[in-house]
User: Which sequence fits this backbone?
């Protein structure tokens, strides 16, 4: 599969690159994608939720009313869950939501996500992007030149570019990452992948091993 290489102004450079069939041409494994996205989201959870149960409630333990003769149910303490302000039954406790996922499954998930985008023609390759200073309007213009202003974009660079990161971080639909940090969630969450030519070479070398 060949794709056109554009410059940062959205112009055709006259070059084409070939997307590796071993990565972008495979049959996407949807279950691997699901597992990797599930793990990513689970790892984002702090797990610090906590509700006070009956033993932790600060109410008095005095008996509220006599045991018999009132015509109502027995009541021994305001800590009972049946009263407003009482303890919570089986309330949430702090826990770790993360779980293990094999490296090969995670690798397959990323390759599958790349294949999904390639087969939907949602990958654009650019030769390079260089911003002289961190300026949001310059990044907005970059997206406009590529006709992706109205789409969620993920720009993949070979290394961290501070000016590009700072220029894009205030844009809700734009995200910038590097080849070493790219993950399945970000790939699937984006409508359009913008991959630098150098980053594409690194990705193909990484997954073809």
Assistant:
């Amino acid at each position: 599969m060949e794709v056109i290489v554009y410059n940062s102004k959205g112009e055709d450079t006259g070059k084409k690159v070939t997307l590796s069939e071993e990565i972008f041409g495979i049959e996407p494994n949807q279950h691997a994608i699901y597992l990797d996205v599930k793990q990513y989201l689970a790892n984002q959870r702090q797990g610090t939720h906590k509700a006070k149960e009956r033993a932790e409630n600060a109410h008095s333990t005095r008996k509220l009313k006599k045991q018999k003769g009132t015509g109502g149910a027995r009541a021994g303490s305001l800590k009972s869950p049946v009263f407003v302000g009482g303890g919570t039954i089986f309330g949430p406790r702090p826990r770790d939501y993360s779980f293990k996922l094999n490296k090969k499954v995670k690798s397959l998930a990323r390759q599958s996500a790349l294949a999904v985008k390639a087969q939907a023609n949602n990958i654009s390759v650019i030769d390079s992007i260089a911003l002289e200073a961190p300026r949001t309007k310059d990044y907005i213009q970059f997206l406009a030149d590529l006709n992706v202003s109205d789409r969620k974009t993920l720009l993949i660079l070979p290394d961290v570019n501070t000016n590009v990161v700072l220029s894009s971080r205030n844009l809700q639909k734009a995200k910038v990452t590097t080849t070493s940090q790219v993950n399945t969630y970000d790939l699937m969450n984006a409508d359009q992948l913008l991959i630098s030519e150098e980053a594409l070479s690194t990705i193909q070398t990484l997954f073809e091993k």
The chain has two domains: 2-28+99-207, 46-96. The two ends are 20 Å apart (CA to CA). The first helix runs from residue 21 to 24. DSSP finds seven helices and six strands in the chain.
